[in-house]
Amino acid sequence: MTKPISSIRRDWVAKTLAGLLLGLVLALAGSGLFVHFASGIGSSVRVQLAMWLVMPVWLGVLGGSYFFHSGARAWLWLGAAAILLVGALASVRLL
Amino acid sequence: MRTEFIRIYKSVHTWTGILSGLALFIAFYAGALTVFKEEIVRWAAPPAAIAATDLAQAHELIARTLAEHPEAARDFKLHLQPAEHLPAPMSWSIKPPDADEHDSLAGRHYLATLDAAGLPAVSETQPSQLGELIDILHRVVGLPFDNDPNRWLMGVIAVLYALALISGVIVLLPSLVKDLFALRVGKNLKRMWLDAHNVVGFISLPFHVVFALTAAVFAFHDGLYALQDHLLYDGRIKEMLRPVGGAKPQARSFDPATMLPPAELVARVQAVVPDFVPDTLQYLQATGPRPVVRVWGHDPQAISPRAPGGFAVVDPYGGRLLSTDYLPGKQDAASTTVSSFFALHFATFGGTPVRWMYFLLGLAGAWLFYSGNLLWIESRRRKQRAENAAPEQRRDFRLLGALTIGTCLGCISGISFAIVAAKGLHGRVDDLNAWLWYVYYACFFAAIGWAFNRGAARAAVDLLWLSAGATLAIPLSSLLALLWPALGLWVNLSTASLGVDVTALLGSLALAWMARETARRARIGPQDSVWSDTQMRNRDTVS
C-alpha cells in the first residue's frame, strides 16, 4: 500500500488546532482517569501529580499531530480518541 | 519514516525555533546564572559586620525582639549561617497585602541581632535586587515584571520550545547514527555548525525535555488547576491540596519566651535525618493559635522538594515533629516524584557538582539557540547564492542576524554591567535596585541598536568585546578594591564571592576569544556570508 507522497497535506492551522484543543481534552481526561484510579495516593499529592500529567500529554499530542496525513484526519482520530477517553472518564466516575 | 514527514517537521523545527530562540537564549543564559544567584548577591553585598549566629543566644534574641516587635511574629526567619547579604541572624518582612506571591522583595525588610549589652538591635534593610533581576529575566523571557501575562508569554515560548525539541529529534532520527557521532570540522562551516548543534541538542535532550515541561507547567499551573478544579474536583481543590500532616501543637500559652531554644529544634530534626544540613528556621504564627517552625535546609544525599531546599515542620513549644512531607529523604514515593520535577529544574539535588553541571548545560543551551538562528541564516544564504551570483544578502537575513547578535550579546553584557553596577553604584544613587534595571536595559537596547546600525558582522565583534569587557569588570572591580581602598569599592573574600570573580574572569576570556575569532572570520571568511565584513563594505559603497 503505497500512496503518492503528495497525499500528505500540510494543513498547518487545522493540525495545530487539533493538537492544541483535542490534545488538551485528552490530557485533562487522562488526568481525570489518573485521579480516579490512583486513589491510593494522598489527595494533595494526587492533585499535584494530576496537574503535572497534563503538560507532557498535551505537548506530546501537539507535537505528534503533524504526523496525520491531513488536518481532517487529525481532527477525526484525535476527536475519536477524545470521545473515547472522556466517555471512559464519565463512566468510571458515574459507576 | 517518510521523507515528506521529515520535511514537515523540519518546517516545524525552523519556525518554532526562530520564534522562540532569542527568548530562550535569555532564559537559558540568565537561568545558568540563577543557579548561582545567591553567590552573585553575596559578591555584590556591601561590607557589613557579619554577626555570626550564636545558637545559645538565638533564643534570647527571638524572645526579646518579639517583645519589642510583635508584628514580626507572623513570619520571621533565623539564619543559621549568616552571609554577606544577610549579615544578621534574624530577619522578617512586612508585606503589603496586594503583593504578588512571587515578589519576595515587596514591602519592608528588617534585620535583628543582639548588641554588646544583650539588647536587640533592629535595623531596616533594603535587600539587593540583583539576584531577582537575573532570576526575573530568566523567568519571563527578559521582561522586567514577573506577572501573569508575562508568565503566560513565557509559557507560550515553552510550548514552542517543546515543539522545537520534538520536531528536532524527528528530523535527526533517520540520520542519527550517521550524524550524531560526526563532528565534521573542515571547510564546510555550515556542516560543522549543524553537527555541533545536533550533538549538543541531542546529548542534552533529557535536560531540555525537563526544562520545556517544567517551564510550561510553571507558567500555566494556575490555569490548569482551575480547569481541573472545575472539571474533576467540583470546586474542592483547595481542601484537597491542604497537607494532611498537621498534628496540633500541644502548648496552651504562646509566649515566645517559652519556646524551645533553636538548637533544640534543630537537634530534634537531625535526630530523624542525620545528613540534613539546616540553614534557616522559619517561624510562622509564633504567637498565634497554630505556631510552627519550618526547619529549612538541604540534604546532599536526597532531592530537595522546592527551590530553597526542603523543610521539616516542628512545634516550637512542644518540640514535636509535626510533618516531614517536605523533608528531603523522608517523603513518600508520590511526593518524591512531584519534588523531583522541582529538583530537576532548580538543580537542588546532588549538591555543588550538580549546580555546576546545570550552569554549564544552561550555557550550552543558550549556545544551542544562538547556533540555531545562525544556521537558519546560513542555510538560506546558500540558496540565495545559487540563484544570484552577486550575493547581496536578503534584508530579512541581515535583520535577523543583527537581532540575534544584539539580543544575545546585549543580554550577556547587560547582566554583567548590572552585576558591576550593584557594587559600583552602591551609595552613589538613591534607588540602587531601580538603577540595576536601567543599566541592564540601557545596555540591552543599545546593543540591539548598535547591531542594526553596524550590521551583524561588525557588531558581533564590537559587542563580543563589550561583553568581554563588562564581564572582566566584575573581577577587575574586586582587584581595584584591593589595590585602591580609597575608591570606595570593596571585595568580599568568602569562597562564594571569590568564585564569582574567578568564573567571571574565565567567562570574559572566553568572550574575548570569541571576539578575536569573529573578527578574523569577518576579515578572511567567505565573503558572501552575513558574517563577512565585505557585505558591510559593499553596502557602504552602494549607499
Automatic annotation (TrEMBL), chain A:
<keyword id="KW-1133">Transmembrane helix</keyword>
<protein>
    <submittedName>
        <fullName>Uncharacterized protein</fullName>
    </submittedName>
</protein>
<feature type="transmembrane region" description="Helical">
    <location>
        <begin position="49"/>
        <end position="68"/>
    </location>
</feature>
<keyword id="KW-0812">Transmembrane</keyword>
<feature type="transmembrane region" description="Helical">
    <location>
        <begin position="12"/>
        <end position="37"/>
    </location>
</feature>
<keyword id="KW-0472">Membrane</keyword>
<feature type="transmembrane region" description="Helical">
    <location>
        <begin position="75"/>
        <end position="94"/>
    </location>
</feature>
TrEMBL record, chain B:
<keyword id="KW-0472">Membrane</keyword>
<dbReference type="Pfam" id="PF03929">
    <property type="entry name" value="PepSY_TM"/>
</dbReference>
<dbReference type="InterPro" id="IPR005625">
    <property type="entry name" value="PepSY-ass_TM"/>
</dbReference>
<feature type="transmembrane region" description="Helical">
    <location>
        <begin position="397"/>
        <end position="422"/>
    </location>
</feature>
<feature type="transmembrane region" description="Helical">
    <location>
        <begin position="490"/>
        <end position="513"/>
    </location>
</feature>
<feature type="transmembrane region" description="Helical">
    <location>
        <begin position="12"/>
        <end position="36"/>
    </location>
</feature>
<feature type="transmembrane region" description="Helical">
    <location>
        <begin position="152"/>
        <end position="177"/>
    </location>
</feature>
<feature type="transmembrane region" description="Helical">
    <location>
        <begin position="464"/>
        <end position="484"/>
    </location>
</feature>
<feature type="transmembrane region" description="Helical">
    <location>
        <begin position="198"/>
        <end position="220"/>
    </location>
</feature>
<feature type="transmembrane region" description="Helical">
    <location>
        <begin position="434"/>
        <end position="452"/>
    </location>
</feature>
<protein>
    <submittedName>
        <fullName>Putative iron-regulated membrane protein</fullName>
    </submittedName>
</protein>
<keyword id="KW-0812">Transmembrane</keyword>
<keyword id="KW-1133">Transmembrane helix</keyword>
<feature type="transmembrane region" description="Helical">
    <location>
        <begin position="356"/>
        <end position="376"/>
    </location>
</feature>
